[in-house]
Amino acid sequence: xxxxxxxxxxxxxxxxxxxxxxxxxxxxxxxxxxxxxxxxxxxxxxxxxxxxxxxxxxxxxxxxxxxxxxxxxxxxxxxxxxxxxxxxxxxxx
Length: 93
Prior knowledge:
Blueprint lengths: L1 E2 L2 E2 L3 E6 L2 E7 L10 H16 L2 E4 L2 H9 L7 E2 L3 H12 L1
């Protein structure tokens, strides 16, 4: 995500079948507390919903965001041991 032409931070994901697994989100310290992480995650999750995929929130910030935004709960799947094994394997490649 860019703010005023500067990179504020990424949210990282991998697709696993019909699931989009969010495994990392970060924000540059220069933007911390200003709300861009929330905006970034909101946009990413809205895009997932529009694509018809399911959300799996391994990233702590994404999980916290989902807990606060019930309107996205119907598109979220639980983090399972199988998803974590797959993610570990996919990340090693």
